[in-house]
Amino acid sequence: MKTTKFILVTILMILAIDSVKAQVIDPSIFPDQVFLRENTMTRKPIPYIYVRESDVMWSKRVWRTLDLREKFNHPLYYPETRINNRASLYDVIKLALLEGTIQAFDNPAMDDEFKVKMSKATIEGIFTVWDSTRQVEDPNNPGTFILAPLATDLNSNNIKAYWMKEDWFFDKQRSVMDVRILGLCPMKEKADPGSGEIIGYSPIFWVYFPQCRPIFAKSEVFNTKNDGERRSLDDLFWKRMFASYIHKESNVYDRPVIVYSTGIEALLESDRIKTDISIIEHDLWHL
User: Fold this and answer.
1) In the prediction, which pLDDT does 8 show?
2) How far out from the chain centre does Cα 95 lie?
3) Residue 245's closest CA among 272, 205, 212?
4) What is the pLDDT of residue 138?
5) Residue 286 main-chain phi, psi, to 5 deg
6) Which of 49, 56, 125, 134 has CA 20 to 30 A from 38's CA?
7) Which residues have CB under 8 Å from 65's CB, separation 6+?
8) What is the pLDDT of residues 230-241, one digit of tens each?
9) φ, ψ for residue 220 (rounded to 5)?
């Protein structure tokens, strides 16, 4: 009996030692991690539920603006430079485009229907910004200055907003109000040529959101509550963990809110559109 107990204790000790050895991480590969993070890198996006046209009782298309300067949207903006396996939304999209995993669509200001695909050369050119107002002293004529354009990379800190296109609809088969994001459009800062002051934002390209989801599902974002439970970019959009305002809804004139409302009135109009969607969902269950 004692021999059997001794053998069992010995086996358990060997297994415990092996388990400790198995958790030792090579510092040359993962120098600042206690454990190997494998969950996010192998994740897949939650598949969309099939929706039949006959089951859609009501739908509304809206366009939103995500301002990354808002604190709630900081997980989309930071880090400005990649940290290990964590990067900003822009850097994730940029890397996927350069690798050819996803496709970018041109003419973002006038066309948001994903019609004109960008070539790889065009995409690479977009990520380079030329400062055409830069001047340097002429070495052949001291005291005078000449134009010397400088090329810099379009980095994450230049992207402060996104446009987002989505469809809201009521599915009578499941009796739920659902939403599907269709596209994202990064907006780069636009500076005044004379003063260099930021005067607005300009769209760069559209990406088709369903095509990006497999990439987003493997991209971690910061969790302010728990470092051990990192969410992915796909989780963030799936759970609607972002702040935004509506700048356009589907209408007969195909015009954005800013055409007929400005300032505080534009924000109130955005709230009205959002409230109308909520009221429609509520009225469907009202007796």
Assistant:
1) 61
2) 13
3) 272
4) 67
5) -80, 130
6) 49
7) 161, 162, 163, 164, 244, 245, 246, 247
8) 889 999 999 999
9) -75, 150
Count CA atoms within 13 Å of residue 10 on its CB side: 6
Whole-angstrom distance, CA of residue 213 vs CA of residue 44: 8
CA 119 to chain centre: 22
Q: Between 209-216 and 89-99, two packed helices, what is the crossing angle to 10 degrees?
A: 100
Residue 134 pLDDT > 80, yes or no?
Answer: no
Q: Report the range of poorest mean pLDDT among 20-29, 33-42, 220-229, 256-265.
A: 20-29
Tokens standing for 189?
Answer: 């800062």
The answer to whether 90 and 188 are in contact (CB under 8 A) is no
Instruction: Give pLDDT, residue 265.
Output: 92
Q: How far apart are CA 212 and CA 87, in angstroms?
A: 15
Among 182, 176, 177, 184, CA closest to 277: 177
Tokens of 194: 């004379």
